[in-house]
Amino acid sequence: MEKVHAGIIGLGRAGQMHLKNLMTIPEIVIEQVADVFIENVSEHLNDIGITNQTRDYHDILNNPKVDTVFIFTSTNTHEEIVTAAAKAGKNIFCEKPLSMNQVEEASLNVLREVKKAGVKLQIGFNRRMDPQFRNVYEGVRNGKIGTPQIVKVTSRDPDLLPHDLIQRIGGLLFDFTMHDFDMARYMMNSNISEVYAKGGTLIDPTLKDIDDIDTLALVLQFENGTYGLIDNSRRAVYGYDQRVEVFGSEGMLKAENVSNSTVELYNNKNEELQKPLPIFKERYREAYTAEMKAFVRSILKDEPLVAEGRDVIMAQRAAVAAKKSLETGLPQKVDTSYPLE
Amino acid sequence: MEKVHAGIIGLGRAGQMHLKNLMTIPEIVIEQVADVFIENVSEHLNDIGITNQTRDYHDILNNPKVDTVFIFTSTNTHEEIVTAAAKAGKNIFCEKPLSMNQVEEASLNVLREVKKAGVKLQIGFNRRMDPQFRNVYEGVRNGKIGTPQIVKVTSRDPDLLPHDLIQRIGGLLFDFTMHDFDMARYMMNSNISEVYAKGGTLIDPTLKDIDDIDTLALVLQFENGTYGLIDNSRRAVYGYDQRVEVFGSEGMLKAENVSNSTVELYNNKNEELQKPLPIFKERYREAYTAEMKAFVRSILKDEPLVAEGRDVIMAQRAAVAAKKSLETGLPQKVDTSYPLE
Amino acid sequence: MEKVHAGIIGLGRAGQMHLKNLMTIPEIVIEQVADVFIENVSEHLNDIGITNQTRDYHDILNNPKVDTVFIFTSTNTHEEIVTAAAKAGKNIFCEKPLSMNQVEEASLNVLREVKKAGVKLQIGFNRRMDPQFRNVYEGVRNGKIGTPQIVKVTSRDPDLLPHDLIQRIGGLLFDFTMHDFDMARYMMNSNISEVYAKGGTLIDPTLKDIDDIDTLALVLQFENGTYGLIDNSRRAVYGYDQRVEVFGSEGMLKAENVSNSTVELYNNKNEELQKPLPIFKERYREAYTAEMKAFVRSILKDEPLVAEGRDVIMAQRAAVAAKKSLETGLPQKVDTSYPLE
Amino acid sequence: MEKVHAGIIGLGRAGQMHLKNLMTIPEIVIEQVADVFIENVSEHLNDIGITNQTRDYHDILNNPKVDTVFIFTSTNTHEEIVTAAAKAGKNIFCEKPLSMNQVEEASLNVLREVKKAGVKLQIGFNRRMDPQFRNVYEGVRNGKIGTPQIVKVTSRDPDLLPHDLIQRIGGLLFDFTMHDFDMARYMMNSNISEVYAKGGTLIDPTLKDIDDIDTLALVLQFENGTYGLIDNSRRAVYGYDQRVEVFGSEGMLKAENVSNSTVELYNNKNEELQKPLPIFKERYREAYTAEMKAFVRSILKDEPLVAEGRDVIMAQRAAVAAKKSLETGLPQKVDTSYPLE
């Protein structure tokens, strides 16, 4: 079996979850792992048989056995590490965004290095590989609903994040809605060309202090003339609410929330033991592994990447436009050209 | 049993449907009916025992036995007939709108006459009495989802209307979306203060010739700071798609489409005999009778009207604002004051 | 329009419900009504325009305007009235059973008179006309599940009946399960040839005093070699539980319970506002009218009867066999021949 | 972390599936594996790091590092290996049955050795650990439906098995229905005291040649006076149909089939992309791991076993009684005493 020889960079909470998933994929050999606080996880790594550990990610980039790096470090390091990995000739998996700077030139510079190096870069838009959304996506692409006309994304987090975390990862639009922009664009197979956003702090008014919001309603226009609606909330008390609906000339496809339970309770109060709606890690558990498998296939069999540089740029532009729309109260055009063609 | 003594004005298709419903309400005595083409329905009326028929609606207004009129004539007659009925001292049931003129002064003039006469006027926002939406509404009012934050209305017609009919009843925004504006406002218990609309002709490009559209996406802001999203289409091939969702600080209530079937088919194709989604008259069958019963109660027991003059003005203003938003590409403020207080 | 000229016999609670339904069918002219306590309902009848009232059902049988009688009197009068109506040459609608005597000869005698008179007799197995069960039935007949192999009927009453009523109408097997025997036989299109029953008093032990039970589990064998399972309870606290499932060589069709609500509530307790399950009259509301319409069609257009004499005999035999099975602890064969062929 | 030191005996298809699950449980150290055809899987085992391999299961029993054996060999070896493992002082996990002989004395002899050795023996009634059924079970035990009165188990295989396999594993009653007997008994928390079975070959008449059937309907009585119904089929074309319903004095709990999809398709044919019903390994995927985890807890923390020797004896007796009921056409009493108390 041909294998991907992987180096893992970043073993915080996200990195550990991804590591666990990567270990279930037979085509992946984990050659080396790196974390600035490697001593915190060293014993556990030894336990599970990963002994080649380092504090310095450059060791991985210099390791000739490694052909592919998975970057799970915090956002503010992406720009530096992705650039260095590209220069080292490694294939790269990295979460969005590629740079902290919302001015896209920083991200584009990273992508230019990736292009120059001729390596593969997959962006962690994991929801594209969620079985439910994938099923909708494929149905739409296969013409089951005719020509798509309207896409609706409902995306609500189960609870507020700490303010300091928000400041590090970029606020509702850049941390959360960006996934929805990507999903809407993916479903419609067309770039977002205009955004109108309306939102505020209906849950936590102190979010204003850090220039963030918790509730958001958006109308999108796509390049192909179709429409989109997104609504976001930071606190859905009933769980992680993730639904997508695509309406077209010949029908509608929608993915409802996922539940783990098929048990129904009937009693004289006429209530039902409701399907406990899943939390974050459970909801996209399969997607996290599936995106890695897809990346492996794109490396070993040259299949198309699930999400690439262009995708993160387009989603980021939509988020920037939404932010400006919130600030100005006006709809904002979104540039759909891509300079790295 | 105290009774409402009714005169029915207008016996076209809508009028006949309403007549049938009215006949099932024991508190209603149908004293007289009027239609300009009364000869077309005369025999059928005799068959069902309604013999006091006239061509001229003034006969009903002059009939001292009649205390309440139900107006089912075409939109362009509402202004005249409602005004005359108010002057004749009759209680009035009438479909929206109250005038053809989208400048609201005409409607306000009608409402001034109603107010002066001290009669009851109920507007036919029948969806307020739909059992599903009513159930959501009451849940929201009773605090089941805490403080409402986002309302979403999905409203899609099963098929395009003829152009000439559209011209008579006023286009998507005034014929169709107006119900959704009213529903959104009803659920949130707050006036719409701003509208942003994006739409076009994705189904029938010739609608442009009559200045209409077939597909629409809207973001609303309410006076109380909350948000709304509406999406409309004129052609949902799978049926009449009418759903409402209200999201709040303590949960979410939503009304899914109504189906008449609980039958499930399992076979080796893993398809299901899908719940045949209902068409228009079926979907709101109960609502049409329920709104009449509510009107009877408001007359006989002085209960509050389900929908009154103010409601039609507010929905109309939202439609006018949406139209201007479509024309200008900009969000539009909506006046929420009511001059007839 | 050709009409059925009806006489109604029996205006107790059931009779009044049926009368209301009959009045909605345009092909039915109600010529005369009879009840031994006609004075109790006389005023109400006058109110709704039915003035030809009598205490004595013979007046109806002697009324030359009446061609069809609907018999809603108590079970112990069926034998006498149906026989007399047949002799008077009237078409007959009657609830099961045709006689109090569980020895079927009494019922057969009634059916012989019906046959001799050449009139139509429809048995009130209303569930055959329930839209859900009808949908399953038609799917099965149209081959959607291939060859049927197993039928399952779940049938549970919402609450215990008074002992004196039970004694008048015949206990669980004859009042309640008999409908399920008919439904199972209808779905499989084959006579029941063997019954094994197991049951007891898990809810109300005092039912033993009147030789009745409240809980029942049955296995059926059909003449064509297929199998059936029925379970009954007199008290399902969550409502009237009526489900049917037919399994076959190419799939399964099942009718779940009917609910009036499509509203879903999500909150932090992960419960759902459960579809309020319907009570008796609501659950079969449409079936009651549909069976009457079917009877009208069979009279006016000579369509087949929905349920005829043979059907009540077969269901009754299954009930008798089940009773004997309970008494002996052994399975019982059921005679499937029909002497009136 | 305290660990279970495991030896795996039998690496056919079932064994390999279980091995994969066992490897995901951190408390389990796999010390050695055995299979009579170990050469077939040797390379794969080396690949996944299991190098201590043997052809002879005695090597495992003699391995002092091994404290627990998991037996996944064919049924005809259970009696010998379980007995030997007990004598060797190992804790034992084994699939039902414990002996080929349907006369229970052989199984009881095995259980006597287990008792004498004082080791733990868990029977692989995996469905007890299925999350859906577990949820129902816990609801019933916690009184959510009051006193249970009726249990219904629907259990249908997706397709016929080869005749030679059937002969090795014991026919519908012993291979398949036995799980349902256990489930019914588990839900009602009471022994089965009587069985009536009706069945035949509606799918494959040649099953008669090997004294087996493919379709089955059963009525059970439990020691505590309650009732059960089971229906089985060997071929449900739509997938693996596994449902359980428990009805009680205060309500009903039921577990519907599990689907992996929440995607709904609406089109003008009013069909739905039906939730693809799962096949065997998928349906109980979680249960297979959960039963192992439960066994680990019972060893390390002395928690009660999920299913023990008594359980397999009781299920086996029900199967034997059902077989006799089929042969005689009569209900059969089932002994509920347990000699190894």
If you had to describe this structure to a student in words, what would you say it looks like?
The structure is a homotetramer of 341-residue chains. Chain A has eleven helices and 15 strands. With 341 residues, chain A is an alpha/beta fold. Chain A folds into two domains: 4-119, Rossmann fold; 128-276 and 309-333, Dihydrodipicolinate Reductase, domain 2, CATH 3.30.360.10. Chain A has a seven-stranded mixed sheet, covered by helices on one side. A six-stranded parallel sheet of chain A has the order 3-2-1-4-5-6, sandwiched between helices. In chain A, strand 4 (68-71), helix 4 and strand 5 (91-94) form a beta-alpha-beta unit. The longest helix of chain A is centred in the last third of the chain and has 20 residues, at 309-328. The two termini of chain A are 34 Å apart. The mean pLDDT of chain A is 90. The A-B interface holds A 146-147, 149-150, 152, 154, 156, 194, 196, 198-200, 202-203, 215-221, 225-229, 231, 233, 235-238, 241, 247, 249-252, 329-331 and B 146-147, 149-150, 152, 154, 156, 194, 196-200, 202-203, 215-221, 225-229, 231, 233, 235-238, 241, 247, 249-252, 329-331. Strand 13 (263-267) of chain B pairs antiparallel with strand 12 of chain C, so a sheet runs across the interface.
Order of helices and strands of chain A: EHEHEHEHEHEHEHHEEEEEEEHHHE
> Which class best fits the helix and strand makeup of chain A?
alpha/beta
Query: What name is given to the CATH topology of the largest domain in chain A?
Result: Dihydrodipicolinate Reductase, domain 2
Order of adjacent strands in the largest pleated sheet of chain A: 12-11-7-10-9-8-15
Question: CATH superfamily of the largest domain in chain A, please?
Answer: Dihydrodipicolinate Reductase, domain 2
**Name of the CATH class of the largest domain in chain A:** Alpha Beta
Helix content of chain A: 25-40%
General form of chain A: globular
